[in-house]
Task: structure prediction
Amino acid sequence: MFSRLIVCSVVFGVSLFSVGCSKSKPTAPPVATPPVTTPPKTAATPPVVTAPTERPASPEVQIAAGKELYTTYCLSCHGESGDGTPTSPRDYTQGIFKGGRETEQLYARTLLGMPGSPMPSSTNLKPEEIADLVHYLQSLSDPSAQAKVEHKRTRLVAKKSGKTLPEAIPDAQWESVPATSIVVSPLWWRNFDDPDLKIQALHDGQSLAIRVSWIDATKNEHSVKPQDFRDMTAVQFFKGGPEPFLGMGSTKGTVDFWAWAADWQADRKQYADVDTRYPNMAVDEYLFEEGGPGGGSGNGEGGKEGDRKHPTAKQSKDYLSGWAAGNLLSDPTRSFTASGMQAKGFGTLTMLPRPSQLVLGNGEWSDSRWTVVLRRPLAVAADAGLSLAPGEKLSVAFAIWDGEARDRDGQKLISIWHDLEVEK
Amino acid sequence: MQDFNRRDFLKVTGTAAAVLGITEFPTRLLAGVDEIDNPLAMYPNRDWEKVYRDQYRYDSTFRYVCSPNDTHACRLQAFVRNGIVMRIEQPYDVANYADLFGNKATCNWHPRGCSKGYTMHRRMYGPYRLRYPMIRVGWKQWADDGFPELTPEGRTKYKFDARGKDRFVRASWDNAFKYIAKGLEAIARRYSGPQGAELLKQQGYEPEMISEMGGAGTRTLKFRGGMGLLGVISKYGMYRVSQTMALLDAKVRGVDEKTARGGRNWSNYTWHGDQAPGHPFVHGLQTSDVDFNDLRFSKLMVQWGKNLVENKMTARGYTYKDIMDGKYGEPGAALLLFRTYPRHPFWEQITESQPFYTPTGRLQAYNDEPEVIEYGENFIVHREGPEGTPYLPNVIVSSNPFIRPDDYGIAPEAMHWDERTVRNIKLPWADAKLTKNPLWEKGYKFFCITPKTRHRVHSQWSVCDWHQQWDSNFGDPYRMDKRSPGVGEHQLHMNPQAARDLGINDGDYVYVDANPADRPYVGWMPDDPFYKVARRMLRVKYNPAYPYNAVMMKHAPYIATEKSVAAHESRPDGRAVSADTGYQSNFRYGSQQSVTRNWHMPMHQTDTLFHKAKVSMSFIFGGEADNHAINTVPKETLVRVVKAEDGGLGGSGIWEPATRGMTPDAENDFMKKYLAGECVKPS
Result:
């Protein structure tokens, strides 16, 4: 019971959305008292672990001793070089720690383990041994690595264009708009390379355009096969206060999304159907296909198939459940490349009704970089999402999905909330 | 760089959604998860369920008996919508109707029906079913030319030596019947009288066979009525057709009704090796004493590739009217009573006039009929297989001095298939175990068995795409590996160690070759293009349930033909579907027939002997259709297995599922723990 309570406090300090947060805005500060040996009196005042006094030995000695301990106790999961092979814990060599790289933080997690993950507690080790281990772990990476991925709240400005923005905003015009670098990190941990996410925003009093640009070495624009995952980006908006939970908002704070997906855009050129993604597939019949069951087959006619024997468009909508239920994603006649959505908490993310789909998106992939422009009228009707106006201040957050890394749903890189001002 | 089109742009900069005039979707706003104080007072919006209710909606239903060759006669229920049978289910009503005495079955018989029954509508509407008569072009030409005698040149001209490459033409039913009649007449005329007898002699028939015909060409016609129980329902009509050939004979030979002779009834039912070989010599019955209760309460059952034999006995006392009037339950339904319900083993033995329908009226462990003594089976003995053995083929293993078979002077070294089948050599085991089968010595060391699976697809495997997918470990509707002949393909189960010793990985393609003396066909040559069509190739599935020297392939897949092979090798998608007939092969190359053959052993031919009559509790001598003609033939054969292609996608590397640690003989640590029961901790 004792250790579980301690762990609660530690885990709370590293909740999902404060990954590597700057110490200037800690969610739960790693307080240094009381010491680990003191049992908690009540659950309301959870104790926090503190590292022991440094022992009189040189760092080199400590690191060497730590390495030996690592080999004995940690290597089987964390890998010989600390890179997380063969299992998939954090890569120590990247220097990005789930709850910070400070000595106290690492000491606490090593001692207590991380419930909910395979990381066990290490109560069999002496305090000084754990301290040695911590020194070794810290020695595997540069302290600046953590700093580089720290999320810091930033102010972005959507510049007002003097002229009405053209249908297609030329690259030259974007070049004059300042780009803000935004730190993102995985919501569900996976190793990743810094995607160098850059955000620009521009409006003309009528519509707002946001340009999202990030490094992605592989263009993934299909999602038909179970093995397929597409590249994607989304911007999350909230106006007013208090700011709701970053992850899909809450019942007290609806959040809006503008999302663009590479497959939606590719589908507008040529709809990716099951039989275009699996050109060798074969099926005897669909009962309610246009032309009726087995239409025209039998006695040899089965051998004379056309190129596209069973396209979705020839199927009865009633039997394509998603389409029949009104899910725009399942609708083969959908024509959007981007979509407006809303959420009021986990499990509530919903696409706006079809007439209210006013977000446009266009992505271009070149030199291993996606550049996506999302655009929507500032002012919209009540059922078309969050209405905006020049001079307003918004909370925004960003997410990108890397199809090559099989990102989908919650598996993505996310930012924290930032501030966006729509220039007056 | 942006690629918004004008319509999109207007949509954005225009006044809003109203402009678009889209009204098909209800503009219901986001329904978030609200705070719920009392879950009992709240029900979430589940309008979407209507979609599924609509999908399962139907206009009408009807119940019927599914009665294919498997004899189970399951009552099933079809659901119809817009005049189309959408799906077939079981009605779960077997316990609701009664037999003559009011006995009812129990719910233990549920579920009835197999996947073949449930997919009948897919078969009916699907692309593989014949919908009208067709005639082979070469044959039609032969008929139109007046059926000239088939010289070697004629055989080529009319493509009797390349039927698989010939085309078919559509015929009306009237025309089809006319051609059938013309063919029957031509045969009857050709083989009637002294000229016909001479012709048969030239073709190599034995004089006894020719004299048995009595000069009637109609006696060369053979008609198969089909299996017993189903024959009662329909196919016995073919035996009546056979009898009516006497009318043709009267016309052809100008003989009177007393001399006119009909065709021959051809009963090859158990040539399939379809039934468990319970021998009528011992019980007087072939097989009818299985009661499923015994199976239900058994802890271990070993069923080796044969039908579970039900109670093929006579139903009595029912009338069509009673059944249709609902006397026994729902109109049209009745529980058929085969003497007793449930089946009482040995009920006959205590209530009939004699315990067993044998000459002695008892179970017989000894038989003294001359032919039984001649064959060396006057006592119960073991024979090695005519081919599937490492020892002398077909050797009778016994040291009983009263077993005194006739070997007809055929030497043990003689290995022609006919010699092996009829030769009767007795050896005690001490000697028999020292003998060798030369085929085994040549490296054909796998017993290949080809059993059926009862409740999946009796008699025909792949009548629709779903069965092709379910049939093996290689089903894939997407056909990601275009080498696959269809959406699935056949597989050879093999002991993993045996496969590995031959360099064969799980999922690899292999060739399976049998005795080269007569398979894949008599007279094959490696450079004959048809050899490629006929040589069996399929995928290996590791299966540790099989002993080292046994391989298994389920029976009755659709064979590769010249046209399916041509399609497989030329179509962009690689499907083995014949271009002009739509025939879907289950193999890329070869077939079950590439390696198997029948062995009609004399002792299995009971048509001169005594046995219980099939359709009554009585005692008869001589032949009777189906169950007492040839009494099941062995089909086990020896094969060798040679790797053909890698199993990995596109022919490279190992078949991917076999690399995941979850397949036989490639288990990862977790799978090993799972198999050892270590993933569950007892509390």
